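Think of the structure tokens as a kind of shorthand, similar to the way a musician reads notation: each symbol stands for something richer, in this case the local conformation of the backbone. In the example below we present two proteins back to back. Begin with the first one, reading the sequence and then the tokens, and try to describe in your own words what changes along the chain.
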Amino acid sequence: MFADTNESETVFAPVIQAGVEALKAAECSGKLFIFHSSIPTAEAPGKLKNRDDKKLINTEKEKTLFQPQKAVYEQLSKDCVSQGCSVDLFLFPSQYVDIATMGDVATHTGGSVFKYSNFQVERDGQHFLSDLKKDVEKAIGFDAIMRVRTSTGFRATDFFGAIHMNNTTDVEMAAVDCDKAVTVEFKHDDTLSEETGALLQCALLYTTISGQRRLRIHNLSLNCSAQLSELYKSCETDALVNFFAKSAYRAMLNQPLKTVKEILVNQAAHMLACYRKNCASPSAASQLILPDAMKVFPVYLNSLLKTGPLVGSAELSTDDRAHQRLSTTAMGVEDTQLLLYPRLIPLHNMDVASDVVPTPVRCSEERLTDAGMFLLENGCSLFLWLGQACPPEMIQSIFNVPSLAHVPVDLRSLPELDNPQSQKLRSIIDSLLDQRPSSMKSMFQNGF
């Protein structure tokens, strides 16, 4: 359509505005799929300026790199939510595009942001098509409003997710799909009864894709205890880390990264010190004492501190950091758990006759073996790690080449070979991909 155009500048906000008006004219909710590759520079509403300044990293002003440029985009998000218009953004940038601003519209409307840097059809085409297919096919509801109610003694005080809020109680979502999660923070501000427990109700009013208005209600009764040891015993560490990640990623918009990381460390130290003081048996001051339910909590926290948004390194692009920050905001507990502690699956001793995925091992370099083959996945990327002494017969059965040295360095997918090892490995990968909200980028790595 535009093959012969000489126009080199692009617009972004007016395209979404046109989509909102179209849905308004049709008197229905819906979703916009936006495919974009550059920062909008045309003289039109939503024009953005390049503000990617590496000099701001590790300074008090670093937070401004992740703050969306307000004006048009803030109002645009509100218009989308009021119309029930969700925005899914597929980006194909070769340079800075200000994802912090452009992606903010998608995040506040219950949408998703997909990013394919320096897109090449041969390398990224299948990845993009898989993401688009999943996005179109996923279960979804539109024009949603959620409210959380509690019994006496505690209350919902904050909400984290791909949401919009005009007040302190109603969580509005232009769309809500099966891959999004809302994290709720509760404040305990009065006495709770051990007899009656704590009661929660989450009510979600939404419109189905067929136009039916429905109400979905979840009721939950939780036990209460006056014993602090019982609290630590029942702690849901994965859910706790999900909350820590989302709260930290929100805080980095208003506070220096150094302060955000210090708060995370101090909160964790306070929690564990409280357990040591009130619940644990006396022990040497140098001994680390952890509740059984929180054994991996320090590992999770250390991983969170090393994620792209919190690292503060000039080696990472601002857009990549902003993209991970926005993506994590809508993640569920399982997704953040996997992101912060990837699954390491040994493949060299897999049972080709079994239908199940091999049992993962501890994600540590110590588990890697020179003659082994491992699959590492974190929900975003999929690594196939090959030891230098990996048996030639295994290499032949998987890659159809005689040795590790002959495996192509730019390989992005496995060849489809008619042997048990190849079929088993490809079925494992397909199984993992089916479980994830988006298609994972595949990479192959020679070890040692």
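Once you have a description of the first chain, move to the second and do the same.
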Amino acid sequence: MRRALIWITLLTSALVAALLLGAVTVLDWRDAGARASADATAQATAVAQVLSITVDHDALRRAVAMTSAGARGDLAVHLAGGPTVGTSHVGPQDVAAAAGRSGSVDVDAPGGTARLRPVTTVDHDTAVVEVYLPGDAALAGLLPRFGALLLVAVGSVLAAGLVAWLRSASMVTALRTLAASAATIGGDREHPPISIDGPEELTDLAASLNRIADRVRQLLASEREMVADLSHRLRTPLTALRLDSESIGGGPVADRIRRAVATLGADVDELIRTAGDTCREASTTCDAAVVVGDRMAFWSALAEHQNRRCEFTCEPDTAPVPLPAQDLAAVVDALAGNVFQHTPSGVPMAVTLVRHGGWVTLVVEDGGPGIADPEAALRRGASSQGSTGLGLDIARHAVEATGGTIFVDRGRLRGARIRLRFGEAGAHHARGEPRAWRLWSRRARSASTR
């Protein structure tokens, strides 16, 4: 921003300096031409006064030599019927035409203009005084003045840029303080209020950021309290469920129910601990191959109980993604839970994990009727089947947190296919798709909404 301010100041100053320099140059040019014309008239008048006294050639030569134009060879006297004293730049016909006039006349001459003035001599004859004006006569005096003005203009522009650089220092410092403070809003640590010295607009912005930070802290505290309260309330029905599971006897089904209840209890305890832990790190990395494999072991057993064909393919040995393990597990559970909740028993499902080119892709598909409105399904809380509508929204938020994308379309099993494209942890690559989710919907071929 500081560089932009300096450039704006320099460009504005340069524009003003250029306009002033152009205007002064034009006026000076006109003034130089007027001065050259007046000087020529004055020298012609001086020689005319000599002609009113004498027509002696030697006297005229001395009078011509005493003028600045004569010294340069730019002044001549044409006597009637006699020789020309000085250096002439016009032809005899121009002199003859000027002798018949009553006033001065300007005629074109090689490289400039000649001013011819008829004069009545002491012997009552008509002589013509010629003063030659070179075309660059005005320019010769104008160039030094133009150079001086140009130096003044350049100095003024540089001075304006220096003043802008000095004056913007405090504003840039204030903006950097605001940026650093704004980056901490929403964190778990307490930070002192933002205090800056700068323009009134920046101080108002700092006050607004302080109010936003206070509000965010209040909302985060309320959210943690709500999560902790809800999790604690779940303990009572969970305890009853655990007691019931212990009383159903033995067998594979009973063991699976007990494991599910134990997992649910661990998840509730983790929610309570997380809600009270204000120093939890937000950028944890996990191995997707391990997490997805662990969750699919649970869902494969449940699929076998429902006579579902469950295929799980994990190509990489390791697939690090910048997500906490519990968040990725929640994504897998949400997507697999959707399959079990919204498709009949016996419908096949397949889960594939692929790692390639800095991305980790998780594909979950089924042989159900598909998703009629993928865009609505990805909106938080939207569901036409009486569920919470949070499953795909949880997946979308998780994948976007890694810089990836979510795709919804039909798969090889002729049902819904959800493709999550996670950014690989530590990988640097150009994103081929936008961060927001992209939808490939085929509503015409879909039969129902999940």
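Compare your description with these statements about the second chain. The domain at 2-141 is CATH 3.30.450.160 (Beta-Lactamase).
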